[in-house]
Amino acid sequence: MLLRQIAITFFSFAGIWLFSSFQTLHSQPGNFLKLPQFADVLSVPWKDSIYRFPEFQKGKITYNTGQLDHEFDLNYNLYFEKIDFISSSGDTLSITNTREIKTIQIGHAWFIHDYTKGFFELILDLPVSLAVKKQFVFRNSKVRGAVHFADLRGVVGNHDRFYEIVPRYVFVDKNGGVHRPTRGTILKLFSDHSEKVTSYLRNHRPDFESREDLVSLLNYCNPLLSF
Q1: Where do the structural domains in the chain lie, given as residue ranges?
Q2: Average pLDDT of the chain to the nearest whole number
Q3: In whole angstroms, how far apart are CA 204 and each of 87, 130, 197, 207, 213?
């Protein structure tokens, strides 16, 4: 009888714990940004977070054929992963003809452009550079029992959506090519110095998702190109 009561008590507590964990799993995570159902991204309290800069700044666009002399009021839209500008009529619009864009300067920041991968902000300007794209990553709707909800940017949804802003780092070669940071990539970019690079990787074990580690890695590798 005593064992039965202990078992009942145990499973009762276990049930309560599992239910609490289930609720936590399907509630809004503390550091995530919530876009409520039927809400537009421009109406939420964190609407200013969709832009890289708190205000639009003067900037210039460089195409593969050269730089435009005209300055624009520009900002990078993290949520839509586009460059926005203020038109002559005061409207906020997105640059759409991006195929021939090479770089964009916004204030003191530089963005390199890859037509298939988008815009990346330059962090470290070296022969092999480091750049980053801060992305609004969709973390599902966290609705209880939900398996999957689509994340259609700019379309009002009938479910809550949760986002996390995550940096995505890339290596940029001298020709403007964009590469995902990996052990194989760094060895390929510095193939003439593979022995020294391999030694650095073995001794330091860099985290290829850490800005600090990637900066240190490139600061070590780039001077090797002069030898």
Answers
A1: 29-179, 181-227
A2: 86
A3: 49, 18, 10, 9, 9
Label each residue of 68-108 as H, E or C: CCCCEEEEEECCCCEEEEECCCCCEEECCCCCCEEEEEECC
3-state SS, 99-136, equals CCEEEEEECCEEEEEECCCEEEEEEECCCCEEEEEEEE
Single pTM value for the model? 0.81
Mean pLDDT computed over 207-224: 98
Q: Give 122's contacts (C-beta < 8 A, 6+ positions apart).
A: 109, 110, 111, 112, 129, 130, 131, 172
Distance CA 19, CA 8 (A): 16
Name the token pair of 53: 């800069």
The C-alpha atoms of residue 101 and residue 145 are separated, in whole angstroms, by 44
Radius of gyration of the chain (CA): 24
The distance from CA 118 to its chain's CA centroid, rounded to whole angstroms, is: 11
Q: Which residues pair with residue 110 across a beta bridge?
A: 105
Between 213 and 24, name the one with better pLDDT.
Answer: 213
Q: What is the pLDDT at residue 198?
A: 98
Extract the tokens encoding 67: 């730089």
For the ranges 27-41, 58-72, 134-148, the maximum mean pLDDT occurs at: 58-72
CB 155 within 8 A of CB 118: no
